[in-house]
Q: What sequence folds into this?
């Protein structure tokens, strides 16, 4: 059973569009991380959210941690081809990281 | 800073042979290193957690006799896939938790090793 479900699994959009990726669970986490992974490479940490309701911005990316610390979202404004990749949420709190199912994003010029 | 390397970056081996993958933290010492496995178009699945100088802790369903982990120093962990079979073909990624940090969730990931077993 996957603890963290991400939706959508795959998203193909045009440059300039906005999108939101969701990460949901029935468990409460002490913190949650978002990573981006490009093909043939390891994941790179984008952000860590710790407090329920917390919102963090990283340029065109906005991350939110749910009030109950069970879910999170990633919103990208005006997506660019360079945003293409696999987006992974990862939960902490079990002496290890547990990764979500992943969302594959393709941004076409 | 906080760079993790893996070697080799890709390897092709014949069924029945063993393959060793190295994971090094280049500019920091790591108390704990983690090994993940990723199948095409899927997420990362934790295989095992290794602490320097002690036996690795394997996740449920991961054969410890098949995936041998050695963490001999604070900058090096190795994963040996013994008697590899085609179903072991995958992308293997390691991560390292810096000694200096209080959080075990601060992990830096290597670039991965693609293993193909023919």
A:
């Amino acid at each position: 059973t996957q603890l963290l479900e991400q939706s959508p699994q795959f998203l193909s959009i045009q440059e300039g569009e906005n999108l939101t990726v969701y990460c949901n669970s029935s468990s409460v986490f002490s913190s949650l991380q978002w990573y981006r992974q490009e093909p043939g490479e390891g994941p790179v940490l984008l952000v860590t959210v710790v407090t329920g309701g917390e919102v963090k911005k990283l340029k065109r990316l906005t991350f939110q941690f749910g009030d109950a610390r069970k879910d999170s979202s990633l919103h990208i404004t005006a997506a660019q081809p360079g945003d293409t990749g696999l987006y992974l949420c990862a939960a902490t709190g079990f002496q290890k990281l547990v990764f979500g199912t992943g969302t594959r994003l393709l941004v076409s010029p | 800073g906080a760079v993790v390397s893996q070697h080799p970056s890709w390897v092709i081996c014949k069924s029945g042979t063993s393959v060793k993958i190295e994971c090094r933290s280049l500019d920091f010492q790591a108390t704990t290193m983690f090994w993940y496995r990723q199948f095409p178009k899927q997420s990362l699945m934790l295989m095992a957690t290794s602490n320097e100088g002690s036996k690795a802790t394997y996740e449920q369903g991961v054969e410890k006799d098949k995936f041998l982990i050695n963490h001999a120093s604070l900058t090096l962990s190795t994963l040996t896939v013994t008697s590899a079979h085609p179903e072991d073909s995958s992308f293997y990624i390691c991560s390292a938790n810096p000694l200096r940090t209080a959080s075990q969730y601060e992990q830096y990931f290597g670039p991965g090793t693609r293993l193909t077993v023919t």
Chain A has a mean pLDDT of 93. Chain A has no helices and eleven strands. The first strand of chain A starts at residue 5 and ends at 7. The interface with chain B takes residues 31, 33, 40-44, 48, 88, 92, 95-102, 104 of chain A (CB under 8 Å).
